[in-house]
């Protein structure tokens, strides 16, 4: 669900020339996250109008992850793999594990107190797969369901860097990316298809951009996303979610590569900061909304727009607290561990 947008330097070779581009932090991509998480929150509020398709938020997240991880890893060597994995562990695991623990505890407590729809009967079906980052394979239909995207992305974080390092030629990387997607399509699992299909679109967009420097106008990219979104409203079909991922990958590349008013708007400080909270919001928003719905239900104020108006700020506030007191310190610690490992490796190699 989340990949840092801070990227190091890279050399792009295309059309017979070397194009040197310094790849740095892009606040517009964090701003894009902040917009996408709104759809995810809407997706878990009952009664949301039909013109809001909340399912599409994760499809752009997948494309964004594929793009950024590919951009980060493509210039690295095998020696860089361990520091990369260390940073991933401290970025993903702490919040994920905390959310899983809180979900289990609250499901048991709410069932005991008969508060709302506790769904504690699903604990057995979701617990073991969730512990091993395989929520997409769990039999439990709804409890801790957002974790399915994290399971998809964790496997991508482990496998794709090895693919990039082992297959150095551009065309081989593209072929392998397509091959991986076709393998997962064979299993006919909708989670696999949406997840790895969306990630592959982002990864291919990054490889093409690195090779050729190609990107399209941001306004055209937004138009493509809008068309894909409109199509999703016409019918519930998996292929339309892949259309969102494809157009989302085009938009991500455009926002990264080209200046525009859209990029400026998405890159504002407050929106970028909200984007940095999206992983925590994503992992906890159902729990927060559950509590908000219980309170509003007792007050007979449980219309969808009331739940959103009060629930979303509560999600942001809760995420901010977790981010500042728990997530951010552990991310910094993980970066320190990765830096120390890199320093030791460099010292050993130079000895």
Structure description:
With 351 residues, this protein is mainly alpha-helical. The protein has one domain. Helices cover 73% and strands 3% of the residues. α3 packs antiparallel against α5 (147-166) and α12 runs antiparallel to α13 (304-350). The longest helix has 47 residues, at 304-350. The model is unreliable at 6-22 (pLDDT under 50).
Total E-strand runs: 2
Note the main sheet.
2 strands, antiparallel
Net shape: globular
Structural class, by secondary structure, is: mainly alpha
| Portion of residues within helices | over 70%
- Return the string of H and E elements: EEHHHHHHHHHHHHH
The stretches of 5 or more residues where confidence is low (pLDDT under 50) are 6-22
Strand content: under 5%
> How many domains make up the coordinates?
1
What is the count of DSSP helices, taking H or I runs of 4+ residues?
Answer: 13
> Roughly what is the average pLDDT, rounded to an integer?
86
Tell me the Rg in angstroms.
20 Å
Largest beta sheet: strand ordering: 1-2
Quick structural summary:
The protein has 351 residues and is mainly alpha-helical.
Write the layout of secondary structure elements.
Layout: E1 9-14, E2 17-22, H1 27-43, H2 57-73, H3 81-113, H4 123-131, H5 147-166, H6 170-186, H7 190-212, H8 218-234, H9 238-257, H10 261-266, H11 269-276, H12 278-298, H13 304-350
Antiparallel strand pairs: 1-2
Helix pairs in contact: 1-2, 1-11, 1-12, 2-5, 2-7, 2-9, 3-4, 3-5, 3-12, 3-13, 5-7, 6-7, 7-9, 8-9, 12-13
Question: What structural keywords apply?
Answer:
351 residues, two-stranded antiparallel sheet, 2 strands, globular
């Amino acid at each position: 669900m989340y990949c840092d947008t801070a990227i190091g330097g890279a050399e792009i070779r295309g059309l017979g020339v070397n194009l040197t581009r310094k790849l740095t932090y892009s606040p517009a991509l964090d701003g894009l996250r902040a917009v996408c998480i709104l759809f995810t929150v809407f997706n878990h509020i009952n009664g949301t109008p039909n013109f809001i398709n909340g399912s599409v938020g994760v499809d752009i997240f997948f494309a964004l992850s594929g793009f950024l991880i590919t951009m980060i890893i493509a210039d690295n060597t095998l020696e860089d793999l361990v520091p990369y994995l260390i940073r991933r562990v401290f970025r993903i695991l702490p919040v994920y594990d905390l959310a899983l623990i809180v979900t289990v505890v609250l499901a048991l407590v709410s069932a005991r107190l008969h508060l709302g729809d506790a769904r504690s009967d699903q604990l057995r079906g979701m617990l073991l797969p969730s512990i091993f980052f395989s929520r997409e394979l769990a039999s439990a239909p709804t409890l801790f369901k957002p974790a399915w995207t994290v399971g998809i992305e964790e496997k991508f974080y482990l496998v794709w860097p090895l693919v990039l390092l082992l297959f150095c030629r551009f065309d081989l990387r593209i072929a392998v990316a397509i091959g991986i997607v076709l393998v997962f399509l064979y299993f006919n699992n909708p989670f696999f298809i949406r997840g790895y299909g969306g990630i592959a679109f982002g990864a291919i967009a990054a490889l093409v951009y690195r090779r050729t420097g190609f990107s399209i106008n941001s306004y055209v990219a937004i138009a493509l996303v809008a068309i894909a979104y409109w199509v999703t409203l016409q019918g519930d079909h998996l292929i339309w979610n892949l259309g969102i991922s494809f157009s989302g990958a085009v938009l991500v590349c455009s926002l990264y590569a080209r200046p525009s008013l859209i990029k400026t708007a998405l890159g504002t400080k407050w929106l970028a900061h909200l984007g940095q909270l999206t992983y925590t919001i994503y992992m906890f928003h159902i729990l927060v909304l559950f509590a908000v719905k219980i309170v509003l239900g007792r007050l007979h104020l449980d219309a969808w727009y009331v739940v959103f108006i009060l629930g979303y700020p509560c999600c942001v506030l809760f995420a901010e607290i977790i981010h500042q007191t728990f997530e951010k310190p552990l991310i910094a610690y993980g970066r320190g561990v990765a830096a120390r490992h890199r320093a030791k490796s460099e010292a050993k190699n130079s000895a």
